[in-house]
Amino acid sequence: MGAVIAVLIAVLAWWLVRTYNRLVRLRNQTQASWAQIDVQLKRRHDLIPNLVEGARGYAAHERATLEAVVAARGAATDSGLGVMDKAAAEDALTASLGRLIALGESYPQLKADRHFATLQDELTTAEDKIAYARQFYNSAVQSYHSALESFPGNILAGLGGAHTRRDYFEAGAAPQDAVQVRFA
After folding, report:
1. What does the alpha-carbon distance between residue 56 and residue 117 come to, in Å, rounded to a whole number?
2. Is the dihedral of CA 36, 42, 45, 51 positive or negative?
3. What are the C-alpha distances in Å from 89 to residues 51, 54, 141, 162, 170?
4. How distant is the alpha carbon of residue 99 from its chain centre?
5. pLDDT tens per residue across span 6-44
6. Do 16 and 152 touch, CB atoms closer than 8 A?
7. What does the pLDDT look like over 88-133, one tens digit per residue?
8. Cβ atoms 76, 41 nearer than 8 A
9. Model confidence over 151-170: pLDDT tens digits?
10. In angstroms, how far is CA 68 from the centroid of its own chain?
């Protein structure tokens, strides 16, 4: 009888340790995927000054647009932002970048500038990587939340206190207008 109880206690202990370690692994995965978003955002932030300088020479009288991009970049690079505030700052930056890219359409010389075109392509690539990193982060958060809310993870999470819910990186409330393509 004592051997059966010892085996049951060992199985229960193994099960609890395995569940707790899974919670730790999922929590670490959310942190690592958030760090990957930061890497991709930094890459985008590093491209912006070059884009602004390239546009400045061709569209100097578009000062408000250029200053808005610089200000939005400054707000987005604030390291003290949480997930939701970071998402809002990045949405504002994306909107101002859209206006900057639209300048390229308004100024044929700027649009034809090879340096500006290369930076635009790099920015597009950065945006794609950011979208993927956000998707991966949100998937990691979803897996983590599922583990936190499922038995026995919900009991272990409550006991340890180190496991709390994470915020999703959500798109802002800005209207998502469809891109209009017109052929001349």
Report:
1. 14
2. negative
3. 19, 23, 21, 28, 12
4. 21
5. 999 999 999 888 988 898 899 999 999 988 988 888 888
6. yes
7. 888 888 888 888 888 777 777 776 677 777 888 888 888 889 889 9
8. yes
9. 888 887 777 666 788 888 87
10. 21
Three-state SS sequence of the chain:
CHHHHHHHHHHHHHHHHHHHHHHHHHHHHHHHHHHHHHHHHHHHHHHHHHHHHHHHHHCCCCHHHHHHHHHHHHHHCCCCCCHHHHHHHHHHHHHHHHHHHHHHHHCHHHHHCHHHHHHHHHHHHHHHHHHHHHHHHHHHHHHHHHHHHCCCHHHHHHHHCCCCCCCCCCCCCCCCCCCCCCCC
Residue 106 identity (one-letter amino acid)? S
User: Which pair of structure tokens corresponds to residue 70?
Assistant: 């610089």
Using 50, 70 and 90 to split pLDDT, how confident is the model at 60?
A: low
Cβ contact 153:127 at 8 Å: no
What is the residue whose two structure tokens read 């390229």? 104
- pTM here is 0.70
Give the contacts of 44 (CB within 8 A, at least 6 positions apart). 123, 126, 127, 130
